[in-house]
Amino acid sequence: MSRLIVVSNRVNPPSDAGVGTAGGLAMALAAALREYSGVWFGWSGETIESFTGQISMQKVGGVTVALVDLEEQDREEYYDGYANRTLWPLFHSRTDLAAYERSFGEGYQRVNRRFAETLAPLIGPNDLVWIHDYHLIPLADELRKLGVTNRIGFFLHIPWPSRRLLTTLPQHKELVESLLAYDLVGFQTHDALEAFSDYGERELGLAINDGVVEAGGRRTRIGAFPIGIEADAFAQLAQQDAARETFERVRASQAGRRMILGVDRLDYSKGLEERFLAYEQLLVDHPDWAERVFLLQIATPSRDAVQAYQEIRARLDGVSGRINGAFATVDWVPIRYVNRAHRRDELAGIYRAAQVGLVTPLRDGMNLVAKEYVAAQDPDDPGVLVLSKYAGAAEQMQDALIVNPFSREETSEALGQALAMPRAERSARWRRLMDGVARDDVSAWRDRFVAALAGDVAITTAPGGDTRKAS
Ligand code: ADQ
User: Fold this and answer.
1) Could you tell me the pLDDT band of residue 33, with boundaries at 50, 70 and 90?
2) Cβ of residue 157 lying under 6 Å from some atom of ligand 1
3) Alpha helices in 210-306 (DSSP H)
4) The listed CATH number (3.30.70.1710, 3.40.50.2000, 3.40.50.10490, 3.40.640.10) that belongs to domain 232-438
């Protein structure tokens, strides 16, 4: 019987689904492991003087986790370096921010080798291994070198860059070829899948037929597996006490004004500066909206150790301050800019209070905020989602107002349209969006991926559950 072994860089299951601050990915993986019997393996986030490979096993939020510490040099080269300063900017089309340093690449390989050596003894003969995200692309290759023959799948949470951009990465071929050690490689969107295929065919000369790559005696399936949220649970959360209290507090503070809401990790890929400028454009073009609307932008700082993040944070402080200075009146502040994290139930209440959800990344694998915003709405009086065409979510959420986030005018016009949209149109759009968010939820994503990875192998579900045969 097969267990599911999930591997990701950081392991942070929510301690109690619903009230923690864990983000979408953590929620999704914890949900996968509550359903299937298995282990979640990854870095503890801690560093020690020299790597021992010692695993600490814990039970967190109903999930068995296996954590390993890294060295400080690993953190600098693998995590802050190759993951956050090389691959993240490159895969988000920001080659201007991408640092190509050999030591980063070496640290990345070293850590993936260390993870493989530590993980291999935990893998039972029939276990399925599901590896997540750009930190761990070479992990299957390293596991294969150690003789692991299990089925191994990979899911990329972020976009896949265009072929020409990817070729700027030294050793891009080795990186991409290492993906062929997997049995299944999943992307968020068809767009990413196409970009991968374009690279594979033209740079590596691969033959890709019906979503299957055959190379070096191995078959690797590739496909699009758009991630979802725990839609029903989130919709329910939005109606519970903590969410209601937050909703009431926010509504009281609105004093009858419309609220446009942005919720993001503070990251240059999220298009926050462009968003502020588009909102400013709305105030310039439509002075009648002054004092009748405000933008609440919640942006939680992340990756503080990386300079590009310090810079974008300083820029956003500056732009929001300038706009507020120029437009504010004695009793109206046009942008409320908040840097703290919120509990998920509070967040659900805030989403529900907002008349417009403004989700305008310049590039994003999926964007779960767009889906959470929809799930949290009041069906009788839903808000309007304004969504970037460069968020993976746009492939599925065409009933949002889709915008080009690079165009200030286009985004500001969509904001005007959203603010003035009649209830009948809001409801009709929301209904179609919500149907999609509920249907393509996180369980559907997990089951589709695991089924594709498992083939006809039976998987053990969590205690009390059935054994299911994936098809
Ligand atoms: P992220 O880049 O982190 O995820 P996103 O998909 O929007 O982006 O998920 C962010 C999560 O963090 C959401 O669940 C949101 O609720 C939560 N969050 C954000 N700000 C918060 C705050 N202030 N307080 C509390 N929670 C907050 C990466 C990829 C995405 C992809 C996901 C999942 O970059 O493209 O959708 O993984 O695959």
Assistant:
1) confident
2) yes
3) 231-237, 241-254, 272-285
4) 3.40.50.2000
